[in-house]
Amino acid sequence: MAELEPFTDSAERDRSRWSRRRTVSVSCTIVRVLCGLFATVLAAWIVLVFGEANPANGVAEFVRGFAAGVSLGFDDLFTPDDAKFRVLLNSGLAAIVWLGIGSLATMLIRRFALHGPGES
Fold first, then answer.
1. What distances in angstroms separate CA 98 from CA 44, 48, 60, 74, one per listed residue?
2. Concatenated DSSP letters for 91-120?
């Protein structure tokens, strides 16, 4: 007759799995929130440019600086003559890339962290 595992080993393994899942969930949430924040700031910058916001305003300055910091180097990728269209293309592409990075990162974190050795 096969020997059954003691209850404490099973409970400890369940706690360990739950802890791992919780850590992965929190990590994925943090990644999603940060990437979403970056994409939102880029979208806000587009709205401010199209709405012709006062560039000397503190909010507009903050958003412009933040957007420049998270633009992933897309600032001058497209150079159409119209400045608004340039911001739309470059910042819009950067926002889409940030959303893709967030999705890809969370997928990889879940795949590699939850399906490690001993997991099925």
1. 14, 19, 21, 12
2. HHHHHHHHHHHHHHHHHHHHHHHHS-TT--
Which residue reads 């929190």 in tokens?
A: 26
Nearest to 92 by CA among 56, 54, 38: 38
Q: Residue 53 to residues 49, 50, 71: CA-CA distances in angstroms?
A: 6, 8, 19
* Vertex 61: Cα angle to 59 and 64 (nearest 5): 105
45-59: burial string, b at 16+ Cβ within 10 Å, e else = bbebbeeebeeeeee
pLDDT tens digits, one per residue of 52-69: 999 999 999 999 999 999
CB 81 within 8 A of CB 101: no
Read off the pLDDT of residues 92-108 as tens digits, 9 standing for 90 and up.
Answer: 999 999 999 999 999 99
Could you tell me where the beta strands, DSSP code E, fall in the chain?
A: none
Phi-psi region of 118 (alpha: psi -120 to 50; beta: other; left: phi over 0): left
